[in-house]
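Hi R.,

As promised, here are both runs. First protein below:
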Amino acid sequence: MPGDELLSDPALTWTHGIAIQAPPEQVWPWIAQIGDDRGGFYSYTFIENLIDPEDRYRNANEILGEFQNPQFGEGLIMDYLTVHAVEPGKYLLAELAGVPELGWTWIWHLYPAADETTRLVGRMRIQPAGEVINPAITYVMDLGGFVMERRMMQSIKDRAEGRSDPVASEALEIGLWIVALVAGLVSAALFLVLESWRIPLLIAILAVLSLLAFTFLQPPI
């Protein structure tokens, strides 16, 4: 894919794809406006804003005309991750700028498919300079990257197909996740202290399964 030639030996490579029931020209406007101060990244803004003191992440539910012409060097994550190359209607490629100790590329590529549909493929590659990432750190980054990018890809699909996120959907999703977590912790504690342990154990198992589903399957509300 475009941008693969920029990093010779990435320690991490994620490639995610999704089928969208819309032609590329209907998907592209949502890709063109990606960026923190632009249309957002269509993922979990609650998590993104945890590490951003300016609380800048917002996901647009409409096409923003002022951000439909991304240019080389334009910032997508502040002035660090910037536009490296763009082919309108086809792909947007970003690269980390001004950080010699870390290589990072990210591309969103649209492939026309049959019956006026589109295959959206996102690829992120990360290469530290002269370092080997600890396998445990790699594993955690893989899980985090999967969760955030799955949400992003599904949200782009929804918008291109004419759906948008209800205003309270993210808060409700986070609330359900916390309820499942608390239920699991309380049930695990009851399992340890109660003589009648079977029901707490069952609830704890169901809570864990719910957490896995909420985190990795991300079922719609």
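And here is the second one, sequence first, then its structure tokens:
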Amino acid sequence: MASSTSTEPAGPSASTQVSSPTADTRPTAKYWREWPIDTELSARAQALLHASLSNPDLDVRAFSKVGDCQMTTGTFLGGYANGKYLVPDGYQQTVAWFSTSLTAESITAANGLGISSVLNPMFGLAAGYAQCERNETPLDCELRLRRPAVVLITMGTNWKPAGEVSFDKYLRIVVDRVLASGALPVLGTKADNIEGDWKLDQVIAQVANDYDLPLVNVWRSVQGLPNHGLEAPKNIYLTPDGWMQRNYAWLVMLEKIRQILARP
């Protein structure tokens, strides 16, 4: 699928640098399986959040989602706000803070979307999103309408095998666009290995390292479950227990973010 963006950045541009990256104590991206379930917020991530507090173009109580059907509210986080899921002790304030976004669908999170799809205007107005402008990408449309201070990005299940090079390219374009809006991108690994060589999760971890961004290691969050939280025999989608482990991992990250945004 063609991207509407002509640039192909290899890393964070000077215009999106907020502060010098902190010393990286995490294992390299090759050893992403050893990363914690929820990484700490680096100095750069914290600076982006602090800057959003004084940015009139951003809503610090809003986040957007970039993903496929596994990022829609029916399976991702929405249950915490609509009463379907029990809110863990200590997370009630975070659910209240992000309540609107928890139950809202994102233009950039829908069945069948891929990382290049959110950069293709064909998946905006032409796909039935009347709120998008002509030739506006779904990502630009989502950022314009929701004005999120945070964007949660987890993608890859629908990507073709041996496509990690182009996946890396499009993921970096998405991250650069989010950073240009002033929002903090938060990346997440995926639990499945449909491509067969774990290359997509390694790419996601590498991008997180290169941009000094937080990462939710969804893969690690489900390793203690039967069949690693995946439905057999296809091993693509999560089991009910897998969904809950994944949701909790993302809720922990949102709590870390809220603590900074809500700080006096």
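A quick note on the second one: Strands lie at 59-66, 148-153, 184-188, 215-216. Let me know what you think.

Best,
J.
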